[in-house]
Amino acid sequence: MDALPNANIDDFRSEFTLSTIPEAKNKNGVSVGYVPDPTKQWYIFRVSYGREDKAYEWLVGQKVFAYVPKQYAISKTTNKKVLVSMMSNFVFAYLTEQDAELYVKGVTKIKKDDKAETLITPIPGLTDILHYYYDHTTTLGDGKNPPTTIRQDVMESFIRTTLLHDPHVKMAGKDDVVFKTDTEVRVVAGRFQGVIGRVVRHKRQQCVAIQITNQHLCLTAYIPSDFVREIKA
Which pTM does this prediction carry? Predict the structure, then answer.
């Protein structure tokens, strides 16, 4: 694949910085900054009845960094541009495994008299609408599927791409694209500089696909071949 001539991937490490992710704020003005933490993972949750904004506000109110990817669309009632969710019924959150269990199932593990105990205390207004999005491609030792988690660098690319509110950025399924590479690439120039993913063709246009789940891809706008560089293993 063509790439920037004489480009060194290490020269492009500045493409993504924490300052490019704004603080999350709920309607009450509560702010939460995104800080990488080895004890946390990015979870994707399914939310019932299109209540992703409600779940987002609750999580941010608990000082959790949460994210709902949005894009501008024309409102049918006002005929004005409004931000709408790009993935209806989904919300992303950066959590420890214990907090994820607490918010989804109301389950808290504690030690009492040197013995592990599990307390079940459903959270009103949250545990009834927030659900794990399970990874059906993986099976644990107990035969169950684990919750889907997203690699940190992949999630950061997803946030950076969707925060642009570019009308050409879109969600798609694997069957909607043709993969041109088997390896990951990094975008090294242009508006999507720093984004990692795989080069695909979608509706006769070349773009970079960020794989969020086995069923969901986020596609950048058109990316020239000279703007991508293969990531060496």
Answer: 0.85
